[in-house]
Design goal:
Layout (H helix, E strand, L loop, with lengths): L13 H51 L44 H9 L22 E6 L13 E2 L11 E2 L3 E6 L1 E4 L2 E4 L5 E6 L5 E5 L2
Parallel strand pairs: 1-4
Antiparallel strand pairs: 2-3, 4-7, 5-6, 7-8
Length: about 220
Amino acid sequence: MAKQNINSKQGFTIIEVVLVLAIAGLIFLMVFVALPALQRSQRDTARRNDLARVDTSLVQYQTNNQGTNAGSNLPFTSKVYMGAEDFNDTNACGKRPETESESSSTNNMSCIFIRDYMNAGTAGSNKKNEFQDPAGTYYGMDITHIGEGGSAVEYKDLQYVAGGDATKKDGTTMDYVVHVLTGARCNGETAVGDTARHFAIIYRLEGAGTYCIDDQ
């Protein structure tokens, strides 16, 4: 009887090793490419949910402020609020609307709205801000009036000058700023003029262009 050669088992060939490494590399590349896209999509979903909260809170603001601002019942301001960790005296919220006209230049109604409507609990000048973009940056807000007959507004048109002035002309787009357009409604990714009581909200998403939501 012939003896079997117990050492005759063959190992992997170079071609097989290279093939396995190539497949592993392809899988790694797919994960490397797909994971950031998935994370961007998840953050954009969270942003849409945050804008839906803004939409609901603006309706609540209208209910709580009947008869203000020429019957629109919506907040009005000439200042941009760029977001901050808390609402102390240095971030220019100004006085509360119960004690001073909402249209006063000393009030930043964007700041007051975020403080009193987008944060849980009672209002307070030293309250911590919980309204943050999923990327970790605090949301800002800009309130701009369009009105009936107003031209279509795209996100790229919403720009500001240093100091938070209402005139937005220096070409600097406001990242992480929620744009509330009063007297407006959405038309795709843009906003167009409408009656004073209506509003649109525009925000630039990370991976899917511009998002617009309104009260209609």
